[in-house]
Design goal:
The chain is an alpha/beta fold. The protein is 20% helix and 22% strand. Helix 2 packs across helix 3. The longest helix has 16 residues. GO terms for molecular function: arylformamidase activity.
Length: 259
């Protein structure tokens, strides 16, 4: 079994519209912090000089959104309405784990221009690879967007899905759709430009808004999809269990049988 990493990093040195803040408490500072905490909370005195090299443990603090790096969008990310169930859409910590350990297929959209591709593009790709997804399979979209990772273009130059394309996958029984782009929808800049030109509300984030009427999850900001065969592999993308959150980070991988 070969493991292929499908995850993009959380990196405070890369460009992000919502910047990542990453501060590090060094092992030496960690020793002082521990000593102060022991005194404050437990009334215990401890001399950091008793530690090897005067060091304890490092500590990383990050400020970021749950949509930074590779992550899974929960149904609650798409809005407060869920026409398919009582009680509103589920958060990421409520999603069944078996959704995120499934056979996968990858479709090549690298020739698609910036914008939203339609159902016919997906149908041609399924014909090319000679396979349709089974219910619950995970479909991954290889757009080539990671070539712009760390630059503003990563957020403006990629292909997403339109409404009919998204619903086509859901009609096939797919519950998890992944992409190596910033969003499963077209870029914000493209969507807003098309809406200002047409005033057609159906162009406004149709892939996300489909989730208000049909329960499914998106995995966004994947990587290395070009390393995968079209099918015959397993996707593992368990989301971090963030209580009451609309998304959770994931260390996504593909499990591929060795030839």
């Amino acid at each position: 079994m070969h493991i292929i990493d499908l995850s993009s990093p959380v990196d405070s040195e890369q460009y992000e519209p919502d910047p990542v803040e990453h501060t590090v408490l060094t092992p030496a500072a960690g020793a002082r912090h521990m000593s102060e905490e022991m005194a404050e909370h437990f009334g215990l005195g401890f001399d950091v000089d008793d530690l090897p090299d005067g060091e304890f443990l490092s500590l990383d603090r990050l400020s970021l959104t749950t949509h930074t790096g590779t992550h899974v969008d929960a149904p609650s990310h798409y809005g407060t309405r869920a026409s398919y169930r009582e009680g509103g859409p589920r958060h990421i910590d409520e999603m069944p784990l078996d959704w995120f350990h499934r056979p996968g297929l990858v479709l090549d959209l690298t020739d698609a221009p910036t914008g939203a591709v339609g159902r016919e593009v997906l149908e041609r790709e399924f014909d090319r690879i000679g396979k349709l997804p089974e219910p619950m399979d995970i479909v991954l979209l290889h757009t080539g967007a990671p070539r712009y990772q760390g630059s503003p273009k990563y957020f403006t130059d990629f292909a997403g899905l339109d409404g009919p394309a998204t619903n086509y996958l859901l009609d096939l029984g797919v519950k998890v759709i992944g992409t190596d782009a910033f969003s499963l929808d077209a870029p914000f800049t493209d969507i807003i430009a098309r809406y200002r030109e047409t005033r057609d509300r159906s162009v406004l984030w149709p892939a996300h808004f489909a989730g208000r009427d049909r329960e499914y999850c998106q995995v966004e900001r994947l990587a290395n999809l070009e390393l995968l065969p079209p099918h015959g592999f397993t996707v593992v993308c368990f989301p971090i269990k963030v209580a009451r959150a609309g998304a959770g980070w994931a260390r996504a991988v593909a499990l591929v049988d060795n030839p």
